[in-house]
Amino acid sequence: MYTILIVDDELYILTAMSNRMKEWGIYELDVYTAKNASEAIARMSETKIDIVLSDIQMPGMSGLELQKIICDRWPRCRFLFLTGYNEFDYIQFAVRKGSFDYILKSEGYEAIYEAIHKAIISIEEDYRQEDFIRSARAKLQAAQPLLRRELFLTIVKSGLSENVRTKRFEELGVQFNPSLPVLLGAGRIDQWNVPDLSDQTLLMYAIGNITEEFLGRKVHFEFIQFDVNRFFWLIQPNTESNDYDELIQFVAGYLYEVQETCSNLLKLTLSLAVASEPVHWEKLPNRYEELTFSMLFGHGSGDSSVMLKANSCEREEKAASAHRLLLKKTDTLSYYLEVGQSQEFERLYEEVAISSERIPQHLYLETYYTLATMLFSQMNRLRMDSLLSGDYKPSRLMEAGAHTCRTNAFRYLKRLSDAMFEHMAKDRHAKTSTVIERVHAYIDANIGGDLSLGRIGREVYLNPKYLCRLYKQATGKAPSDYIMEARLGRAKALLQTNEKKIHEIAREVGLEPPYFTRFFQKNTGVTPIEYREAAQRGIAGRTRDL
């Protein structure tokens, strides 16, 4: 949909042009009108306008002056002049100042349509121009540190396929080989010596610099802050030999130096751990969990430590690591629930439920209560008070022992999530129906007034383009279809029940008389006068009723 503003001081031209634009049908246009330049500027200040079609000679501010203001304030708006003046000086000045095209009124509507068509093509091409690409690249460059951190966090938290990984590395200029394994290290700040978060951020940055200074020589290196207390780094040889044994010895030898330097310079106590073998990218989530688990329950619990952690670990440790990865998916489940993606929710929930069948009892209980708490929290946030009774009352929801087995427990939580999705669907439908009702009520009450999408959108507090899409999804029609039906229905009623003149009825339904007659005949098969005469003879029902 494109927005077009027609500016002319002659009302009959303004009305005729507006009606013809609405009837064109090639493009979906939201048409606005202004009787002078001041009205045009006011309209553009509150509504995004794609194309302005303006006369040159108008009382007060001329079209040329209006063009200058619009080109300065809204440079991407296409400005078309429609005028009766075929003077070279006007044309030359207008084009030099930024006019997109110049049409003589004597050329007719086909020339106007062609100019608008060219303007729309130009608008679409604008989005593919190099300025946008250069601007996007500059912004991407500025955002690279944040984007790289998010990329590596995703890889370590949940993993990425090699294809996606390769593409993202190329986009962000990451030097790692996405097909070769990496050496993973992890660290924890055991105790902060500053309470302020901004100071902690600076110190974390300093830790990264110190770690890179010692470990990042002649290798591909990336230091990533995981959360406020934890961090990790990835290292990959940058030589063709890919000698990981030498790399591991090098890193292990310098870990203590990193720890001591941070202690002496930053007054921070760190615990550090590094894997004893390289790990493939797909296995990083599990490996990172094992390293952090080691620091939490191994030598580094509450005190500084340096560990070289072997890839083989005890069964319980592996189970706990896998379980923590499983619980992280609760956030994704919560997101799917909140945005109404029921199929994605069901797929991931099934994975969590199946995995929970094989874990120790204490880990199963943690999983159950994590899911139950997530569902309970979402019911509160989404105001689903009606569900917090009967089978889903909090006392039953928060009692894992109320279920005879794990399978039944997860089926119970699944039934609750199904009920929540159903509740949200009904709520969305009700809200959409309310919007449609308000749109219809506004149109019916203002059938002779401003029925532009912009005005209707402000009435229901929605963007015009979103309103148009929502209306079509809900009704299968465009808002303009309902406006046409409402105008036709009101016109029929007025023609049947009172003696107002045709031009008075036309204006009462928001149309100019010449266009009203054509509109009425097109949709009923008879003219307004013929319809009135038939109604008076009591045979109006034989007319075509659309």
UniProtKB/TrEMBL annotation:
Boundaries of every HTH araC/xylS-type domain copy: 437-534
Location of 4-aspartylphosphate modifications = 55
PROSITE patterns (alphabetical): HTH_ARAC_FAMILY_1, HTH_ARAC_FAMILY_2, RESPONSE_REGULATORY
Record has Transcription as a keyword: yes
KW Cell cycle (keyword) present: no
Q: Locate the Response regulatory domain: which residues?
A: 3-120
Q: Name one GO biological process term.
A: phosphorelay signal transduction system
Q: Pfam families, per this entry?
A: HTH_18 (PF12833), Response_reg (PF00072)
Recite the UniProt keywords alphabetically.
Answer: DNA-binding, Phosphoprotein, Transcription, Transcription regulation
Q: Which SMART domains match?
A: HTH_ARAC, REC
Gene Ontology terms, MF aspect: DNA-binding transcription factor activity; sequence-specific DNA binding
Q: Which Gene3D superfamilies match?
A: 3.40.50.2300, Homeodomain-like (1.10.10.60)
Q: What is this protein called?
A: Response regulator
Lineage runs:
Bacteria, Bacillati, Bacillota, Bacilli, Bacillales
